[in-house]
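Input sequence (225 aa), recorded before submission:
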Amino acid sequence: MNTIGIIGAMPSELHDIRETLKDAEVIHIGSFDFYKNTLNGKNIINVCCGVGKVNSAICTQMLIDNFKVDYIINTGVSGGMNSQVKVCDIVISSEVLAHDVNLTFLEKYPPYCSIFKSSDVLINYTVESCKSLDYKYFIGRIASGEQFISDNAIKQDIQTRLNPYAVDMESASIGHCAYVNKIPSISIRCISDNADDDGNISFEEFEKISAKRVANVVLDVISKL
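Predicted structure, token format:
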């Protein structure tokens, strides 16, 4: 029986998934509540990790250690970083990395890797799901850092250095943790803002819409695994 872990940073990013997967067993470990369901012969564990790379890395490792997951899906909203990507579009991670770390140190010392590739199997299933739901999607790099990007100058710097399709605060650390543990993973994000000077306004307006849309994708991907 496959066990699939779903990680979201904020309760709003997991609301629609939890509304669908009702009557979960809630298992409290450390500071986290892990919601466990069985669906179509699969164990589904979803957890709210909190915001930021440290929170998400700790939570991911606890998920792996306690539930022996076969796949990890990071879900939630994100800021758009590519001019083609618009609010409410889906970004499927081809790879994840940090935008606020000197990547040389990750390459020179363990884990000797600074860019963490997403699972081809999970990418393919996510593409199929987006097509069946008629959602516009992009496959590309997602960059993470310890800040909500709402400044044009900071956005331009990240774009110039790393050329990501989306920016958030958790994908890189979740992908990093999955890589170290040799577990297939992916980040599936719906764009809630354009990570620019209007970012705070558009995030407030589109957060719930984007969270529901990406939840639909994740639930459909689960059905395929």
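Checked by second reader. The first helix runs from residue 11 to 20.
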